[in-house]
Design a protein that fits this description.
By secondary structure, the protein is α+β, with helices and mostly antiparallel strands. The chain has a single domain, classed as 3-Layer(aba) Sandwich (Glutaredoxin), CATH 3.40.30. It is built from 2 helices and 4 strands; from the N terminus they run βαβββα. A 4-stranded mixed beta sheet has the order 2-1-3-4, covered by helices on one side. The longest helix has 15 residues. The chain is globular, with a radius of gyration of 14 Å.
Length: 109
């Protein structure tokens, strides 16, 4: 079996799910798509020294706290992310490896 080097060291998954009319609100309807563009631009501007992939994702099924963003490999979930939060997440989490606690979602296990 051939082995590969992962092309990215970090992944940012942003929910862009949308549901039909009359269903619960989704992240995509709360600016999930705009968050993708904002994260891509912020990552590019900061010239972060690791390879980062910003990509859309389907529903994480935690719509009540959306828009939702997940950063891997750490597995940090962020909720109620606004466009104004993007610069802070990029600066603190992606550049300085410090998750933004005020946006972090903690799940009971």
């Amino acid at each position: 079996m051939k082995t590969f080097q992962p092309p990215y060291e970090k992944h940012i998954f942003i929910c862009t799910n949308q549901r039909g009319e009359g269903q619960r609100m989704c992240c995509g309807e709360k600016h999930g798509t705009d968050l993708i563009a904002a994260f891509k631009q912020a990552v590019k501007e900061k010239k972060i020294p690791v390879q980062i992939r910003v990509q859309r994702a389907g529903c994480f099924d935690i719509c009540e706290v959306g828009p939702n963003v997940i950063v891997y490999p750490e597995g940090v979930y962020y909720g109620k992310v606004s466009l104004g939060d993007v610069a802070e997440i990029v600066e603190e989490h992606l550049l300085n490896n410090r998750p933004v606690e005020r946006l972090r979602l903690n799940f009971a296990r």
